[in-house]
Specification:
Elements (H helix, E strand, L loop, with lengths): L13 H54 L1 E7 L4 E8 L7 E10 L4 E6 L13 H8 L4 E4 L1 E3 L6 E2 L4 E3 L3 E8 L8 E8 L11
Antiparallel strand pairs: 1-2, 1-8, 2-3, 3-4, 4-5, 6-9, 7-9, 9-10
């Protein structure tokens, strides 16, 4: 009887197949973990960028309104800012309007409202309770807003400001998952000299 020689193309043994299968499963597990981590990081970066962009747009709108104002009033311990500001229109003339900002600390929201261009509107309230009621219908400009630390949002004091007056802004916007908030902390001067009518 003649013995058959082992050849290279005889195939894999059962032990080799088991070892290769285990190695393949490990490699696929590592690749899947890396892929999931990459997707998670990408999601977090996108959410963080969106939160930053939204906060920056909100801050830019507030700064623009304040820079184009000629009259402003800060009240309610710095939580309410009402101003008379210049608005660019499609026509040749620029009109002015009343704009109100209120930081609702309890809800963590920045509320903003405007009057019709060229008119005066009642945007203030006399007491904190009346303020909550008066601003409840104002649209929320941004959620997750609060004063920086325990300071005032608008200031430096509750008073009326005219052209050249400096109003400090000290706001922070929450981002995601406990990451550092986006902070707006600066003083802005009112620039318009021909706006004299206030907002009652």
């Amino acid at each position: 009887m003649r013995r058959r020689n082992d050849r290279d193309d005889d195939g894999f043994t059962l032990v080799e197949l088991i070892v290769y299968s285990v190695l393949l499963i490990l490699i696929m597990g590592i690749a899947a973990t890396l892929f999931i981590q990459m997707l998670t990081v990408q999601r977090d970066v996108t959410a963080m960028a969106d939160a930053n962009n939204t906060a920056q747009v909100t801050f830019a709108e507030l700064e623009r309104d304040l820079r184009n104002a000629g009259w402003a009033n800060v009240s309610h311990s710095g939580d309410l800012l009402v101003m008379r500001t210049r608005v660019a229109t499609a026509g040749a003339d620029n009109l002015d309007r009343c704009v109100g900002y209120y930081v609702d600390e309890a809800a963590g929201a920045l509320r903003r409202t405007t009057s019709q261009a060229g008119t005066s509107a009642a945007l203030a309230a006399s007491s904190p309770g009346a303020l909550s009621t008066a601003t409840a219908t104002w649209p929320v400009s941004r959620d997750g807003m609060s004063a920086v630390g325990s300071g005032r949002v608008f200031g430096p004091a509750d008073q009326t400001y005219a052209k050249g007056g400096l109003i400090s802004l000290s706001l922070e916007a929450a981002t995601i998952e406990g990451r550092d908030p986006v902070v707006l902390d600066k003083s802005i001067a009112l620039r318009q000299s021909d706006i004299t009518m206030g907002c009652s």
